[in-house]
Amino acid sequence: MIHVSIKPTSRCNLNCLYCNLQEKSKATLSIVTVKDFLSWLVKNFPRERINVRWGGGEPLLTGFDLFNFAVEWQKRLSPNFENEISTNLTLLDENFLRLFKENDFAIFTSLDGIGHSHNFQRDGSFDIVIKALKNLKEYGISKVFVNTVVTKFNCNSLEEIYDLCESLKLKWNFTVVVPSGIQKVQAEKLLVNPVDFSNTIIKIFDKWFMSESPTEILIFYDIIRYIMGRDNCVPKNDPQFSLGFDGNLYACRLLVGNPMYSLGKFTGQNYIEQPSCYTCSYQRNDFYHFYQCKNCYFDFLCNFNHCAYLYEVYFDVPDISNYLCNCWKPIYAHIIECIRAETLFNYQHSKGGKNNERREKINIIKSRANFRRH
Amino acid sequence: MKDEKKLTLLSRELTLEDIENVKSPALREILKEHFLQQSDELKHKEHSKYSEYSKYDKYSRFPYCGITPGD
Description:
heterodimer, A: alpha/beta, TIM Barrel
């Protein structure tokens, strides 16, 4: 699969407290550029599935025509396209609803709280977002992913958001706020206490873990599957690159707008030798050898991203990397412990010659987890 | 060295019967999916039944280290 990100604009109609855009530019991708880019993708990767993620800024600001044309052009080019979009939902209208439904878009949006806490962080958009979420449900659009950016102001209401997502059958996720981009100074005042964050998430995890019909929380599924040995982060061998609003190609969607990482202007004739996220791979390698990650028990879960991502944003490793580690390590330890408890229970009740070997392995894991936890 | 830290073997050595006895519904489903991925025969037979979580692989953005929407 090819992972492609198209960011047609960096403009946005909201002014969220923690916005991480590197810059707000008036530049917008033209329909012609998008058309050429889609054609170029199919020409270079004719047999691959192509996952297109529309982002921004607020991508819907570029208007219905761009998306309608892009989808129709995709259909003419290849049956291998699939689309997802990150939007704040405030501009969602009947046209977009119909387009998303008919073309099986996955929708990614934000919900930072119930009422005031969302309005405080996301420019007073709560009522519009809730109405849009209900509209998506009425239209039968099922792939709706809601993300909550956790700050010290909404950490206490995470359980309410979880319950709301459960009632609306939404898929939920959460991130810790990271000060970067144009709102960096303001966002620094929003940092959540790591102990509060991890305790709240652990409480929600326990509720989710034993729920008979658990809400789909992708990050929990991901962590458990990574613990079981699945490859971490973006699929390492899958090509991925982004087309920015400035018309430049980038190796990763997180780097769009940063000229240092530009692969050059998209011309339709570009040749990319290895269009994977080489910068991330390079940095992760560095962190493994030189940074505190080397001795971290949880590096196989984080894959050095706590540091590597921040490096991409700051061009340096700030103290905030420790902050992120403090937020996540207790959660990782708790999840490992929960899995161990469940599987150990089964182990004790099972029969067979491999039990001793298995017990040894589980004990090693248990001792490591306990050691790191304390 | 890194591979030793992974708990892969933990789940690989569980039988389907073990997994059925896991109390957590969420963990049970994930283990089933993982188990079936290890077993080609079962995967062939029942993949469609347990492919619910696999299909989210492409949406995975883990780890979410503060990446905010718009990305």
